Amino acid sequence: MPVAIVTGAGKRIGRGLALAMAEDGYDIAVHYRSSKSEAEETVRDVEAMGGKAMPFRADLGVAGDIEAMMANIRTRLGPAQCLINSASLFDYDLADNWTVETFDRHMAVNLRAPLHLAQRLIEDLPDGVQGCVINLLDQKLFNLNPDFYTYTLSKLGLKGATEMLAQAVAPKCRVNAVAPGLTLQSGDQSQEQFAQVHAMTPMGRGTRIDDIADAVRYLVRATAVTGAVLPVDCGQRLSAMDRDVMFLDTDSPERARPADDGPGEENPGNDD
C-alpha cells in the first residue's frame, strides 16, 4: 500500500485528513507532538476500517526530531509518497508586540518543517513513483489583516514556497496547497458565537472537515495539478475584514486566543 504522512493527525482536521486518506487505501503515518493518546486513537480508527497506521512523535520545531521521525517512518512503514502538512502553530500576536521567540517558533513549525519534511520525502521516493505534497494554508492569505501577525507571515511564506517547490521538483513530485476558511470552534468561544461567525460567508455556512478532506483527496488524485492553492472557504475570502474573523464576536484578543492544544478556527491543523 502507498504511505501517506499526515502531520497533526491526532486531533481536529489532521485526524479527519488521516481517516480520509486511509479510506482511499493509504497506510498512514500519524504524526503527533504531545497528543499521544489521541494519535493512538486515530491509529485504532484506521485499523477498524481495515487499514494500517502507526503513530510517530516529533516536535516540528526541532529539525532533529523531523530527521528521526522520517527515518522511523521509512523503517516501519516504508518510504512515503504523500505528505499532508496539516500541523500548525497559531498563536496571537501583532506587529507591535511580536517577540523573537514567537516569530522563530511560527517560522520553524509552519514554514521550515513542511519544507524539511517534503525534502526528505522527495529524496526517498522510489524510482517511477510520483510524490505528492499538500500544504494547509489559510483563506486569511487572500484577505490580509494584521491579526495573528507572525502566524500569517509564516503561512505567506509557505504559500510562496508551494509554488517554488512545485517548479523545482516537477515531475518527480507535485506540490499543492489547500486554504480553508473558518472550520472549528476554538479557545473559549461559545458554540453560539462560533455558529454566528461560521455562517458569515457568501454561501451561508462555514468550512467543514469533509470539505477540506474532499479538496485534499482531489489534489492527491489530480496528476495534472501542481503549484496550485485551492481555497476551501465557502467564499469567506471574498468578504473583506479589517480584523481576523475570530474578532467578529469579541473585542478581547485574550478571549479570542486559541486554546493551547490546537490552532484557531481558520487553521485546519494543530501542533499536537
From TrEMBL:
InterPro entries: NAD(P)-bd_dom_sf, SDR_fam
Superkingdom, taxonomy of origin: Bacteria
GO molecular function, one term: oxidoreductase activity
Residue spans of biased composition, Basic and acidic residues class: 250-260
Regions that span the bilayer: none
This protein's UniProt keywords: Oxidoreductase
Composition-biased stretches (Acidic residues): 262-272
Annotated region (Disordered), positions in chain: 250-272
Stated family: Belongs to the short-chain dehydrogenases/reductases (SDR) family.
PANTHER family: OXIDOREDUCTASE, SHORT-CHAIN DEHYDROGENASE/REDUCTASE FAMILY (AFU_ORTHOLOGUE AFUA_5G02870), SHORT-CHAIN DEHYDROGENASE_REDUCTASE FAMILY PROTEIN
UniProt protein name: SDR family oxidoreductase
Source organism (scientific name): Hwanghaeella grinnelliae
